[in-house]
Amino acid sequence: LVANAFLAQRVSSINSISALCEATEADVQEISRAIGSDPRIGSRFLQSSVGFGGSCFQKDILNLVYL
Question: Catalytic: 56?
Answer without folding.
Answer: yes
